Amino acid sequence: MGSLNNNYALDFKLYYNTIDNALSSTNITRRGVNPATEEVLPLVPVSTREDVDDAVRAGQDAFPSWRELSWDKRAEYLVRFADAIEANLGAIAELLGRETGKPVEAAARELEFALSHIRVTAKLRIPEQVLQDNEECSATLRYTPLGVGVGIIPWNFPVLLGLGKLDAALLSGNTFIWKPSPFSPYTALKLGELAARIFPRGVVQVLSGDDDLGPRLTSHPGIAKVSFTGSTATGKKVMQSCAATLKRFTLELGGNDAAIVCDDADLAKVVPKVGTFAFLNSGQVCMDIKRLYVHAAIYDDFMQQLVTFAKGLRTGGGGDSEAFSGPIQNAAQFARVQDLYGEVSRQSLKTAMGGSLRDLDKSLGYFMPLTIIDNPPEDSRVVVEEAFGPILPVLKWTDEKDVIARANNTKMGLGASVWSGDVERAQRIANRLEAGNVWVNNHFHLAPHVPFGGHKWSGIGMDWGVEGLKGWCNPQVMWVTKNSGGRSLL
């Protein structure tokens, strides 16, 4: 590990694009903001169309030799990359905390999972499937890489979601261009700089930019695949842009996850888990619990315990080692969350906790108080819309069929969970929920080898696991005629 520190130490003062394994700046630059302190962060590039063309060209040039490497050899590069990241772990975690506002422990957990993701993914393989094999001929289903891929990464988990796309793209034989959010480009740029010291030229590239960069990439004829994580509205635009050149795409979009708590749930175990998964990253997780349905028989006890638990969750920024909940990541999202909080007074909603900036003693930073809404109307904005902030509506239910219908009554379908002491009962309910990821007595349980994705307006395709690898490939059937007497159906 000492040699890695010597060979891969990074300077965190200056930030550049990585194009064809060279660091480059741009004539126009911009700055990010630390959302916990509103401190202005260092300058980062604003990539031009020429930068995009150069990166695509380099990726295309690198693709033939990269795809010819064995799976094992490509995996070796990924593991070496993970080792180099780990050698800089403390500094990268600090940088992640500054650009996202995440508390120390939250930033460290994201990086730890990201490293695990690379190392687990490096062990995965897509098996070839023999569909027919007789004396005359064989037919084998195999998967071949696409070419130059792009990962468009959101600001809430800029390292985990970026590396989670990169490792699958590279392992399956593609080259990769990483496009971070304009609100959180810093860790991505440093990881690109590190990748340039490990991977062959043009295999990994990172471009920072403004709102024009995404469309330049999604419309570029040299890009073969776009993997996008972000809002449903932007996902529709990505899909539309990809259609012009028939690019492959994976979309992991917004969610409005429902959790159903049954009357036989063990509150001492369930409340802390539900509270954690509702307010994790200040509600800025696509698979956080966004709507909580609690059986009327235990509703009052549940609410009392939930409020007590939530009041024990400390709010603070990147320098706070004891904080659980951080700020809203950027000013634009802060304004949207503030507007949604305004519904509390506009609709005279009952709050069990929070609901106003007066409930939070913060003079700087984009902080919002953890807020629990007590049994709001089903058609209120705090129920219908994905808040992407620390506001949780809790609603009563009594009839199983009715609560399933209410949980499914959304255009979103990313995740859902059921909590019960009777696992068979919980599974029966879970089987009828319309979401790509469904949990029993858990929520937001993820693993690098297990795919995830959304139904309905929450996405198309899946990331992670072998299914995620397949999304970076074209399925191909190889027919082999073993003798001249082989017959065709035609």
From TrEMBL:
Q: What is the superkingdom listed in this entry's lineage?
A: Eukaryota
Keyword annotations for this protein, in alphabetical order, are: Oxidoreductase
Q: Can you name this protein?
A: aldehyde dehydrogenase (NAD(+))
Query: Per its UniProt entry, what is the enzyme's top EC class, as one word?
Result: oxidoreductase
Annotated active site residues, numbered on this chain, are 252
Q: Which residues form the Aldehyde dehydrogenase domain?
A: 31-476
EC id: 1.2.1.3
Q: Which family does it belong to?
A: Belongs to the aldehyde dehydrogenase family.
Output the InterPro entries linked to this UniProt entry: Ald_DH/histidinol_DH (IPR016161), Ald_DH_C (IPR016163), Ald_DH_CS_GLU (IPR029510), Ald_DH_N (IPR016162), Aldehyde_DH_dom (IPR015590), LUC3-like (IPR044086)
Q: Name one Pfam family in it.
A: Aldedh
The reaction(s) annotated as catalysed by this protein in its Swiss-Prot or TrEMBL entry are: an aldehyde + NAD(+) + H2O = a carboxylate + NADH + 2 H(+)
By its UniProt entry, which Gene3D superfamilies does this protein fall under?
Aldehyde Dehydrogenase, Chain A, domain 1, Aldehyde Dehydrogenase, Chain A, domain 2
According to the UniProt entry, its GO molecular function terms are: aldehyde dehydrogenase (NAD+) activity
**SUPFAM superfamilies from the entry?**
ALDH-like (SSF53720)
